[in-house]
């Protein structure tokens, strides 16, 4: 159900023939209104894919009536011809759905530098438009999968309104949203400006704090569509809370399905001088290949945590840091404390707690371990 | 020969018993003068090991008469007792060699958070002092190895003077010198201020541009000792050139022996608006796990190069980038050019050239691929 759980949306997922496997590879989501307010965030990578360049223009007026997404090719660094492919896809959606192309967000994912077959895409749009249905959410969620092993969907219920969401992404997950595609829908009545504020608040503490492998994508897009079909206007606080819950749920699904990972790692920094400090410290640990390889080896190597903290500009005393792994304080006052052998790292879920003793702010950053399977999957992706 | 090739130096490498393997684990290098000028650079990690905290004070007056190094334990995050161990080792060297402890640089490498056995260290110093010899360079170079598979040594000949060097490091190699220990010797007559300028110039384009795995150590130290025993004063330009050659040679030895690597990768950024831009672009690619895993898989995945460039603030037009791999321009004007299948990535040595078309500066950053062996070695290091 996911994105078609809220009222006012239809969706479809079809086989356009871009994927060599013959799996579904084109999704279409249409907002039937009565409102068409929207908000979006995109990758901050300066090397942006053609669909991002297109969609950034589409979303400027706050009105989006459809989102079309394809897997099987990122349409990134494919030149002017690739941009024309994106434009043609938007025009085709517009013609089939009866809207303007300038209200159609386009998303693509897959290999960079590979031109997508325009004919296959346009035929796929035709097929998807035929199959648009109020129960098409799951088919759409399946059509955007690449190396994902499962589709990611969520529903959060409000008081008479709801939020639905779907996401794809299993690699290139990084701070500024990376090859992650997310579509969120709601039947609440929320104007575009409020959607934007809520979306930025929600992504800041969810997708933005997921750093699976430190790599930033060229195609990341998160688009939120509001149909207003419930006729209900929630308070901004209620809506933001529900949206944050939906984004966090999808982020945890992405984390759990990250390429080749054996562990999901939550790094929580407490007593930081600022929230930015807490995020910077968590991120530095999340990006340490040595730390991530140690977790893969079930090795509570807290020295690699301290070595990462030391690379940041956060406020702390290097001689007075505490570190816990899975609740065991293996380091107190920057010296060995509990026996690391008492830390059981076999469960998939690992927590690292870092006490900076410099304030009262905190933040959690999520990452995965660095495994043989990660190396294997990413050394063989395009071959 | 290495560090004992220049006149005026004696060295030794002995078994102190810190390594469980019974291999050599303590090295001593003594400058017999007549000059005792020196220069040093240390890790920029804020979480510094006890020997770094000690040695930073030692080097302040430009006079260093001996360097004592141990493998088998980093003496980092071992608390005040660990600092006292470092101090005791310096005092022991001073007593045995007949100098002041404040002229003794101490270096340690190995696991963080592990207290070194002080008694074993002091006995090791006694043994090393007994064995100091004018041909002890190789034994010293062997004693500082940890996961290194070979010792790293270099000799560069000047006109009547020379430079010798030894290095260790096979993981945690990162921009600001990371668990890399390097001792450089020369019998040239060079005052401390000139040594400092030459060392900073040499490390800036050698060790500082080596980014094997993006992790920054807590213990990195590079110390340069000048005995003046040749009686010859080279020009600053000649000395800096020879020192740069020595440092670059050692850096390439470190690169070639990086933990688990299958490829040495040289990323050269040309036509950059500044040297800083060129380094930032090269470093961003060197730190992309996805790019590094692709090289391991012999996959010329230039899309991952562009995705990394896009994360930097360097001056460039995202729509006009050229990328070559092993001399084949797989991307021109940010669009596919030569067939990637024509790039042969089987040789260990890989070159990536990035043309930013924004100026006339260039820089090379070196890294390794991300392999199963890297993950294995670093998931099992302390267990």
UniProtKB/TrEMBL annotation, chains A, B:
<dbReference type="InterPro" id="IPR042195">
    <property type="entry name" value="ArgJ_beta_C"/>
</dbReference>
<keyword id="KW-0963">Cytoplasm</keyword>
<feature type="site" description="Cleavage; by autolysis">
    <location>
        <begin position="178"/>
        <end position="179"/>
    </location>
</feature>
<keyword id="KW-0068">Autocatalytic cleavage</keyword>
<comment type="function">
    <text>Catalyzes two activities which are involved in the cyclic version of arginine biosynthesis: the synthesis of N-acetylglutamate from glutamate and acetyl-CoA as the acetyl donor, and of ornithine by transacetylation between N(2)-acetylornithine and glutamate.</text>
</comment>
<feature type="active site" description="Nucleophile">
    <location>
        <position position="179"/>
    </location>
</feature>
<dbReference type="Pfam" id="PF01960">
    <property type="entry name" value="ArgJ"/>
</dbReference>
<keyword id="KW-0028">Amino-acid biosynthesis</keyword>
<keyword id="KW-0012">Acyltransferase</keyword>
<comment type="pathway">
    <text>Amino-acid biosynthesis; L-arginine biosynthesis; L-ornithine and N-acetyl-L-glutamate from L-glutamate and N(2)-acetyl-L-ornithine (cyclic): step 1/1.</text>
</comment>
<comment type="pathway">
    <text>Amino-acid biosynthesis; L-arginine biosynthesis; N(2)-acetyl-L-ornithine from L-glutamate: step 1/4.</text>
</comment>
<feature type="binding site">
    <location>
        <position position="179"/>
    </location>
    <ligand>
        <name>substrate</name>
    </ligand>
</feature>
<feature type="binding site">
    <location>
        <position position="383"/>
    </location>
    <ligand>
        <name>substrate</name>
    </ligand>
</feature>
<feature type="binding site">
    <location>
        <position position="259"/>
    </location>
    <ligand>
        <name>substrate</name>
    </ligand>
</feature>
<feature type="site" description="Involved in the stabilization of negative charge on the oxyanion by the formation of the oxyanion hole">
    <location>
        <position position="109"/>
    </location>
</feature>
<feature type="binding site">
    <location>
        <position position="146"/>
    </location>
    <ligand>
        <name>substrate</name>
    </ligand>
</feature>
<feature type="binding site">
    <location>
        <position position="378"/>
    </location>
    <ligand>
        <name>substrate</name>
    </ligand>
</feature>
<feature type="binding site">
    <location>
        <position position="168"/>
    </location>
    <ligand>
        <name>substrate</name>
    </ligand>
</feature>
<comment type="subunit">
    <text>Heterotetramer of two alpha and two beta chains.</text>
</comment>
<dbReference type="InterPro" id="IPR016117">
    <property type="entry name" value="ArgJ-like_dom_sf"/>
</dbReference>
<comment type="similarity">
    <text>Belongs to the ArgJ family.</text>
</comment>
<keyword id="KW-0511">Multifunctional enzyme</keyword>
<protein>
    <recommendedName>
        <fullName>Arginine biosynthesis bifunctional protein ArgJ</fullName>
        <ecNumber>2.3.1.35</ecNumber>
        <ecNumber>2.3.1.1</ecNumber>
    </recommendedName>
</protein>
<keyword id="KW-0055">Arginine biosynthesis</keyword>
<keyword id="KW-0808">Transferase</keyword>
<dbReference type="InterPro" id="IPR002813">
    <property type="entry name" value="Arg_biosynth_ArgJ"/>
</dbReference>
<feature type="site" description="Involved in the stabilization of negative charge on the oxyanion by the formation of the oxyanion hole">
    <location>
        <position position="110"/>
    </location>
</feature>
């Amino acid at each position: 159900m996911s994105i078609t759980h809220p009222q006012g949306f239809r969706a479809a997922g079809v086989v356009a023939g871009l994927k060599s496997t013959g799996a579904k590879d084109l999704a279409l989501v249409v907002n039937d209104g009565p409102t068409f307010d929207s908000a979006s965030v995109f990758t901050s990578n300066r090397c942006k894919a053609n669909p991002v360049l297109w969609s950034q223009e589409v979303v400027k007026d706050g009105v989006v009536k459809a989102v079309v997404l394809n897997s099987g090719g990122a349409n990134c660094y494919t030149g002017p011809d690739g941009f024309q492919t994106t434009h043609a896809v938007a025009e085709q959606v517009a013609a089939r759905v009866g809207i303007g192309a300038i209200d159609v967000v386009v998303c693509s994912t897959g290999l960079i530098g590979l031109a997508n077959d325009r004919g296959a895409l346009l035929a796929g749009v035709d097929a998807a438009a035929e199959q648009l249905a109020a129960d098409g959410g799951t088919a759409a969620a399946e059509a955007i999968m690449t190396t994902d092993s499962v589709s990611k969907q969520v529903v959060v219920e409000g008081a008479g309104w709801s939020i639905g969401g779907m996401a794809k992404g299993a690699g290139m997950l990084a701070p500024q949203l990376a090859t992650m595609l997310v579509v969120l829908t709601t039947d609440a009545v929320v104007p575009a400006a409020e959607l934007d504020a809520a979306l930025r608040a929600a992504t800041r503490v969810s997708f933005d704090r997921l750093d699976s492998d430190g790599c930033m994508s060229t195609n990341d897009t998160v688009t939120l569509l509001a149909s207003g079909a419930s006729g209900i206007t929630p308070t901004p606080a209620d809506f933001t809370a529900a949206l944050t819950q939906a984004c966090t749920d999808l982020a945890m699904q992405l984390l759990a399905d990250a390429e080749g990972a054996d562990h999901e790692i939550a790094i929580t920094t407490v007593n930081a001088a600022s929230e930015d400090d807490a995020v910077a410290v968590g991120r530095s640990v999340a990006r340490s290949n040595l730390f991530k390889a140690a977790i893969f080896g079930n090795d509570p190597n807290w020295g690699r945590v301290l070595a990462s903290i030391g690379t940041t500009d956060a406020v702390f005393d290097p001689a007075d840091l505490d570190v816990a792994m899975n609740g065991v304080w293996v380091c107190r006052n920057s010296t060995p404390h509990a026996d690391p052998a008492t830390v059981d790292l076999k469960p998939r879920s690992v927590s690292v707690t870092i006490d900076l003793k410099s304030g009262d702010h905190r933040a959690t950053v999520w990452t995965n371990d660095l495994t043989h399977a990660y190396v294997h999957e990413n050394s063989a992706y395009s071959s």
